[in-house]
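On clarity, I found the account of how folds are encoded harder to follow than it need be. What matters is that the chain and its backbone geometry are given together, residue for residue. I therefore recommend that a typical entry be quoted early in the introduction. An entry of this sort, consisting of the sequence and the corresponding backbone structure tokens, reads as follows:
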Amino acid sequence: MPKAFTKVLVFVLSFLTSGIARAQKNHTVELETGGGYVFGNGPEDPGPSLPTFTDSFVLWPTVHWGVAIRLVEGPGEDLYASPVQIADRTFLGEGNLHYLTLTARHRNSLALRTGLEVGFGMMFGETFGSIEILRESPRRVSVPNGPAYGLSLEALVSHSLFSHLIVKAGATYDFEFETNHFQPVILGVVGF
């Protein structure tokens, strides 16, 4: 084979391959599912720290800008090491975290099959329960906290595995005045 033909063939194949990889990242619709761990924090009511499930729907109307709806569920309990006792009850901890976010996302390429997504938006309907034991007619109850509303930030690194399968890892930070949720996440994504 002549050297010129080999160079042209290599150039054409590399051009086609980069186009395929680029198309893999630029899906119009993505379904994300995975999990993480929420670290509750805040000046007055920190909220629970517990494992979470995260499901998202992302619509990309343009190559770089999209809208994401993310549902976070933390069905477990974050019990205090030392329960807090007052006259009529004992506070055992918090749990059953639930909230929804709506964010605008921007995505950019970092490498051939790797990208960076950052998002900013709102957190809606944040609820979690304060787990208590009541002294009068002793019983364990979960008293709802919320709903609360606040802001949401996202930063995710995505890596395309195959044409429709992507892995994303990063962190989200969802907060209102009293309660903050920092959540490292890993998501499996199907893109169309």
Summary: Confidence is low (pLDDT under 50) at residues 15-24. The radius of gyration is 22 Å.
